[in-house]
Amino acid sequence: MADRVGVGLVSVGWMGRLHSRAYLAARHHFPELPLRPELVVAADPDAGGRAYATDVLGYGEAVADHRDLIGRDDVDVVSICSPNFLHREIALAAIAAGKPFWIEKPMGRGATESGEIARAAAERGIVNAVGFNYRHAPAVAKARELVHAGALGRITNVRVSLLADYSSDPAGALTWRFRRDRAVSGVLGDLLSHGVDLVQHVVGRIARVSALTETFIRERPLPAAGAASHFSRGNEGGPAGTVENEDYAAVLARLDDGVAAVLESSRVAIGPRAEYGLEVYGTKGSLRWDFQRMNELRLADDASGYRTIMAGPGFGHFERFQPGAGTSMGFDDLKTIEAAQFLASVAEGRQLAPSAADAWSAASVVDAALESAASGRWIDIRALEPDA
Amino acid sequence: MADRVGVGLVSVGWMGRLHSRAYLAARHHFPELPLRPELVVAADPDAGGRAYATDVLGYGEAVADHRDLIGRDDVDVVSICSPNFLHREIALAAIAAGKPFWIEKPMGRGATESGEIARAAAERGIVNAVGFNYRHAPAVAKARELVHAGALGRITNVRVSLLADYSSDPAGALTWRFRRDRAVSGVLGDLLSHGVDLVQHVVGRIARVSALTETFIRERPLPAAGAASHFSRGNEGGPAGTVENEDYAAVLARLDDGVAAVLESSRVAIGPRAEYGLEVYGTKGSLRWDFQRMNELRLADDASGYRTIMAGPGFGHFERFQPGAGTSMGFDDLKTIEAAQFLASVAEGRQLAPSAADAWSAASVVDAALESAASGRWIDIRALEPDA
Amino acid sequence: MADRVGVGLVSVGWMGRLHSRAYLAARHHFPELPLRPELVVAADPDAGGRAYATDVLGYGEAVADHRDLIGRDDVDVVSICSPNFLHREIALAAIAAGKPFWIEKPMGRGATESGEIARAAAERGIVNAVGFNYRHAPAVAKARELVHAGALGRITNVRVSLLADYSSDPAGALTWRFRRDRAVSGVLGDLLSHGVDLVQHVVGRIARVSALTETFIRERPLPAAGAASHFSRGNEGGPAGTVENEDYAAVLARLDDGVAAVLESSRVAIGPRAEYGLEVYGTKGSLRWDFQRMNELRLADDASGYRTIMAGPGFGHFERFQPGAGTSMGFDDLKTIEAAQFLASVAEGRQLAPSAADAWSAASVVDAALESAASGRWIDIRALEPDA
Amino acid sequence: MADRVGVGLVSVGWMGRLHSRAYLAARHHFPELPLRPELVVAADPDAGGRAYATDVLGYGEAVADHRDLIGRDDVDVVSICSPNFLHREIALAAIAAGKPFWIEKPMGRGATESGEIARAAAERGIVNAVGFNYRHAPAVAKARELVHAGALGRITNVRVSLLADYSSDPAGALTWRFRRDRAVSGVLGDLLSHGVDLVQHVVGRIARVSALTETFIRERPLPAAGAASHFSRGNEGGPAGTVENEDYAAVLARLDDGVAAVLESSRVAIGPRAEYGLEVYGTKGSLRWDFQRMNELRLADDASGYRTIMAGPGFGHFERFQPGAGTSMGFDDLKTIEAAQFLASVAEGRQLAPSAADAWSAASVVDAALESAASGRWIDIRALEPDA
User: Fold this and answer.
1) What is the nearest CA distance from C285 to chain A, expressed in angstroms?
2) Which residues form the Gfo/Idh/MocA-like oxidoreductase N-terminal domain (chains A, B, C, D) (predicted)?
3) Interface predicted TM-score (ipTM)
């Protein structure tokens, strides 16, 4: 029989809802998990969020302040889905309380906060999971497997390009995401960090970067109270404020073993909706993946061109979700896999999911890119401390 | 507060599991539903299926015989996911017991059984839902909306093509699907019926057909006991039997208003995995959709070419699942929509989902296609009776 | 040294110009040809056409009447690019004069005229070429080679779909193409005949058909004098006339060896511009080609999906035109190959190019489709006479 | 009547043949040109090349040494298609002789030689053309027109990616292209220079770069005598030598007006054959083009996604080649446009085609990229001298 594990959720936005559903779905798709999550308590300053938690998500209780949640005896694990600038405080509290946590990315404000969290978790031996969802796409799992099996030969170069339009409307509100004190970076932390993680997960560690950043939309209307989503619009005709971080970044990189990489990201592209592409080239072939067609992998394993392969049995955890290739998994399924990896980490006491250390590593690359863009120089990524 | 509705499930295969998860998911994505499904009892002759129902799906109880399920007081609605040849008996029992039912397709063995079920449901006023999943894809909902709003002008012709490889391996077992007494038709009922429903849902009623059918793989190995899935393999080296129904069908059709249609389907194609495509042409434009890329709609609303539009807010129920275009819904989400429509039908006492009458209509087209293929003549579709 | 061959051209429209350029280009791409074409004389009733022939194309002379061309001693071969309804007279004159001819399609008005031409050519032993251009695409040549080598296993079914928008504008003029006495059929002869030829060239002879045809735009403005192209517009505000042949056709077919086929064509589709697609399915794989991306072949030679292969060396005559895959051949290059095959036929005295007999065969299928659409019955294709 | 213009060709390889055919084709597609090219003399040290020139291309004469060609009275213009390292000498000779020249790219060995040629041509007022073929694709012409008309709003960022496999085979010979003294750069000059020109032609001048380069295949077999093509293979089992220039380059760039750019190129990619892509993003939309599908333009002019537009009338010079969208132009047609622009420049005495100054500009960017890759610093592009 599976043991009950009590879930405490901080923040009932898109990601908080998704974490909650993923906990419930995990037992259907990973029935061997020895833990059965119970949605115990959700924290949200907003009454609507709290009502949603109890009435729709099925939490037993909801509170306004996350500080009333973490220490509770019936809370065994914590999902941290608050705005980024609160992550450090909440994560450190969870670690202090000895509670495994599942945290959305970017994990902290920059490498400093991310490092604090990662080191504290490592010191206390607290397992965790970070929301690098794209890793979990079965086609990405297959891509990593192919790369590691040498199907592409020696890897020569990598390209990730994360182009989104979520901030392309100049009438979009100047939420916390555009403020340096709250979010530090813009698209680098919000999107490109995913690309950094994909490169590091599929190919290897990024060692050095040269970057260029730009803010294309320099002013935005101030937000209505509470506006926080990627799609919130500003007060029409109201006052505007300055966008303090980058809309766009392009990064040249070198990996540890000489592999070259180009990473690019925009939050103001018009045309791509959520085109998060990964391309890996080697001496024997190449592969391509795009989040918009997340169930497809394009593979050239000889010189004759790309084969479009639909994810199917043998691709990561595909078989747990669908019976045959061609039937699509959805984005939420990736979070179910993430939940399952987190729960398995908790059950086994060893880190299985993308971890705080991975998030710290990605944040270090992002910080180095910011530094490079400011200085015009190549920047080495500071090696993570040995225990992280 | 939502009222409890007790669910009884017949058959714990792929579809039975999916129905079960969809009932649970419905309340997350359709929180306004006044009914809260409770998984009461599942019936399956196989002990493994029964264990899965209670241990993984969360049914309170499991029984071997569906006859011990339908009449129970704590069962308010019935999900019928058994092999096709048992549908009639179970559906008529549910109707007799006054229980709304959600049934997979093809609903009956041919139009005769389908008509029996549809008429019985109509006579008794029992709401129901039929698993014409593809209707629920937000891009298909948008396609229908565009067609009905005249965005393509007057519709001239339609094409559906459902190409799958699930029976392409000659070593695939001769399950009930290949037997005339069990399944009647082959790919016509199993796949092309979806295409018929899509045409009728998006454009209009099919009035006449001329068809060609063919069985390309004429012998298959006999199945191991219990083998029933699309992907079961036969006993290697064991005896073979004759495939009794068609692997492939091509159909010319006329719709009520003179629209021309071509429908084609194969279960033995190699290359397409589950390429279920719909194309609608009109005097002002055309659109295309393919299940393999179910989150995309290709629209030509002027002469300059196709725009690839990612499903997003404004496309059917997309917004209930994902926050923005580019983030993929999965196949299971379509069943969640189906569950919600079924539950809403039950709550409101009026038919909202694709119904038994729709399934009867599709079966009539399938039967006419079989008759045409046998006789070499155009066959008129018999109009459904007024009360169906 | 290559012998001089004098070319006489009938009609200086798009195709006449293209034939002329193709003769000149042939010696560059097929330098081993023992004949060197010389553009001797062009016939066109229009003075502008005659001026273009001499001033731009480089003909030595131009005449108004084709009857002043065919018999000339310095004319060794004749290119027949006139409107379709004049083909019979001109072709028979060329045959009577013992002159090899290269004729555009549809060759005659229906199978009757086509048969007259083909039989006359056969009786007199006059080599010829018919403008079934798409055969010459290197990717189609490769497709045929793969099919014949068994790379797809036993062929099960074929699909061709020729969707164009050239008549989609209701303001397009009612040229001869829309008149039964001039063109007989509409899209069947103009486009679908290409599809018939592709099926027969790549897979095998069509034996029986069941067809549906429709005219979606039933009236068009009368043309200005001389309007003859696919894109001519009618007199605005002027009188309209009745379209006498079909805009759309869909055909079910059986090939000699039991292969099933679906052929579909529209001249009024909006979205596709010139989407002429061929798909061949077999027991081991399938392939797809589309004229709009004529340098690509999509091949599934196992169950894992389609590989997009750029035409390159080893694909038909590709190597004569471009040095490597990825660099595109154009449509005109296909006519250069056609010219070269015609000239090689002339030089060797044996039929190498798609021939009058092929055109007669395609016309027989077209006629059978018209008969089937009118009668609602399956129609057997009359076998061609042995000497054709 | 058009005046005769005598053509002298230096080097009868792929490009020399293509120039020759393009001169002949130009009069068909640009009949208004007041010059009629006559192929007078070709120079090639190889007897086979000379024979091809006279026997196939139709030159009146062929000589071994280009020095016996440039000064001839009957040579009015010179096509320079020799290996890159001879360009400077030949171009300066043509300029000294007052002969307009059409030269392949990269024009010189680096910016130094390119600048010498460009300055000399400017000083002497000699019109010229440089083989930046991709500019001439009608879809690229349309892209430029859309960008300049503001259809994409204010341009924010650009991406070009030129991925080819022509050197991906490690058995490919170590021809002059891989030697620093002969070719200077590798893929930067050979391919990325095209990308630089596309960016500068469609959007604007590149001002600064930060680059990374890498040689992935460090040794190659020595070539057989005369091996010079992109596809020559080395002597099997023979001695190998060191590849002296880069297989891969990635470049961050800033344009004059703050536009960001990423340029990337590989000659050893496996999968893409000749994938030369251009993407332009602006505040109102974006567009994409790829040489492999050179007749298509993908345009997002609102937020709903990309429309795939087939090149057609209204796209550059498309109408001179094909009657309607969907019928493909080929690569050679781009050279015909280039020839016509060169001839028009000669006739009008003003520079119309991509010029030596454009080539110098591209070479300056390439040189800056090499310098950046070596130094790890951002490098400003030296402004061209005013008279260039």
Assistant:
1) 13
2) 6-132
3) 0.96
